[in-house]
Amino acid sequence: MKKVEAIIKPFKLDDIREALADIGITGMTVLEVKGFGRQKGHTELYRGAEYMVDFLPKVKIELIIQDELLEQTLDVIVDTARTGKIGDGKIFVTDIERVIRIRTGEENEEAV
Which phi and psi angles does 69 have, rounded to 5°? Predict the structure, then answer.
């Protein structure tokens, strides 16, 4: 199993959720996060004063998926999240050793 973490622009969340549902992925965890990379924030004007906004709002999606769904999942996220502009986000993939469903005690694939 793999854990896929995708940091995306917030307005892309619904499109990605729908695209993942189309390939059979329905469970995910979504967090509102802030951060920056090469984008390095931007300046804003408030009451005549300019100030730097270092941390930009982003959304983090976390998925636990079967190994055989990995490439299709990554393709869907990249194709749906891409705007072609700086700040589109990043995807991180890690191995998952064990998953346990607390309610039933089911493990690994049965727990996902």
Answer: -95, -5
Q: CB of 42 within 8 A of CB of 54?
A: no
What does the pLDDT look like over 94-107, one tens digit per residue?
999 999 999 999 99
From the number of C-beta atoms within 10 Å of its C-beta (0-12, 13-18, 19+), residue 32 rates as exposed
Do the Cβ atoms of 4 and 73 come closer than 8 Å?
A: yes
DSSP state of 47: T
Our measurement of the distance from residue 25's CA atom to the centroid of its chain's CA atoms, rounded to an integer in Å, reads 13
> Does the pLDDT at position 58 exceed 70?
yes
User: pTM for the full model?
Assistant: 0.83
How distant, in Å, are the alpha carbons of 17, 49, 80, 110 from that of 68? 19, 52, 20, 15
